[in-house]
Design brief:
The chain has 363 residues and is of the alpha+beta class. 55% of the residues lie in helices and 10% in strands. The protein is built from 18 helices and five strands. A five-stranded mixed β-barrel has the order 1-2-3-5-4, surrounded by four helices. Strand 4 and strand 5 form a beta hairpin. About 7% of the residues have low confidence.
């Protein structure tokens, strides 16, 4: 551990949902957090000794502990107070390790109370990226070197596309498929859409800053003006199709069961809450809000959303219906179903840029 005192040039408060943590950028550009604040989010009182926290990291994420030991230091805050520095690049691993242990049933009962906080941390990092969160909180994005993003890009991105190599092991897919009660049988067919969503949000999202993703894809510079129109042309029809059944009765049976109701067909319209669930967890997870708004503007009172979807849009819809049906069948109640959906789909609207890139990969 470095015994010298480093100076924080920028200071602010990062928000992980409704959680708050002091964040700093050091004079050398290193980003991180005030350790006592982060310890508190992970269930450790300020008065508890640091070795207990180190023991927790050793148990839950040993690789993170080795990185912490190399970079942890005493820092001087702009207020003149001293604090311990907790480097960025660790908290995502710690939070995901806690959640994974909870899912596997191996998390010690004394740690179960921090699972909700870890979920909030993971969601925030998946949506924005850790570097972007800290830079925004501290104001560092206005002061960093003009070429700082380019330096980051040169360190993390190749100049040319590499030949394909397997990066996601079959065990990764088996673990995700198991969450939905599916059996993974190799990649003879593309994985269901929900698997791609999970990978984008929980794998790429926490490790690549939003700025880097935008720069890497070129989305913000080249696609922004007409991205919505191109997506509309790919996913929506020019005119309303005749009605066909898209939601199998098994979908409604699974949703009705959550409320103790018996599904008896569509002689009457489903209860309003069923429509809300469908809009949020089916349509909302495969179509960005801008596209949903376009459908609302086009469709008549008696028309359904899916009547405006193209074949490509319908394929995405069908995959999501299967995923939500599987979750509903395995849930014991509506609150349980909601928690499972939030865990599976990150509870966030689909990003326009990520959807555009995904559709181009399929094409």
């Amino acid at each position: 551990m470095n015994a010298s005192i480093l100076t924080a040039s920028h200071y602010g408060v990062v928000r992980f949902g409704d959680l708050q943590c002091e964040a700093v950028v050091l004079n050398g550009g290193e980003r991180g957090y005030v350790r006592r604040q982060l310890m508190k989010l992970l269930g450790f009182a300020e008065r508890q000794r640091g070795d207990r926290f180190a023991g927790f990291l050793r148990e839950i994420a040993p690789n993170s502990l080795s990185l912490l030991n190399k970079q942890e230091a005493t820092i001087l805050l702009p207020s003149g107070q001293k604090a311990q520095f907790f480097p960025s690049g660790i908290i995502a691993d710690v939070a995901s390790a806690v959640v994974n242990a909870a899912i596997d049933g191996t998390l010690h009962k004394a740690r179960r109370g921090i699972v909700p906080n870890c979920m909030k941390i993971m969601r925030a990092l998946a949506t924005t990226g850790e570097v972007a969160l800290i830079d925004e909180a501290t104001g560092y994005q206005h002061h960093r070197a003009p070429d700082a993003l380019q330096e980051l890009i040169s360190g993390l991105r190749r100049q040319t596309c590499a030949s394909w190599e397997r990066r996601c092991h079959p065990d990764y897919y088996r673990a995700l498929y198991r969450l939905f009660g599916w059996k993974y049988q190799g990649h003879d067919q593309n994985p269901p859409h929900v698997v791609g969503q999970i990978t984008q949000r929980w794998v790429y999202g926490p490790v690549l800053p939003a700025d880097l993703i935008d720069e890497a894809t070129g989305y913000q510079h080249h696609r922004a003006p007409d991205a919505l129109q191109e997506l509309i042309s790919k996913l929506l029809r020019q005119s309303c199709a005749s009605w066909e059944r898209r939601f199998h009765p098994d979908y409604y049976r699974a949703i009705y069961r959550l409320f103790g109701w018996k599904y008896q067909g569509h002689d009457q319209n489903p209860p309003h809450v069923v429509g809300q669930i469908t809009l949020r967890w089916v349509y909302g997870q495969v179509l960005p809000e801008d596209l949903l708004g376009e459908i609302r503007n086009r469709k008549g009172i008696s028309q359904k959303h899916h009547q405006w979807l193209s074949e490509q849009g319908l394929a995405r819809l069908e995959s999501q219906i299967h995923a939500v049906t599987a979750i509903a069948r395995s849930s014991i109640s509506y609150p349980d179903f909601k928690r499972r959906c939030e865990a599976a789909f990150a509870g966030a609207a689909l990003q326009l840029g990520l959807l555009f890139d995904e559709l181009e990969e399929v094409a």
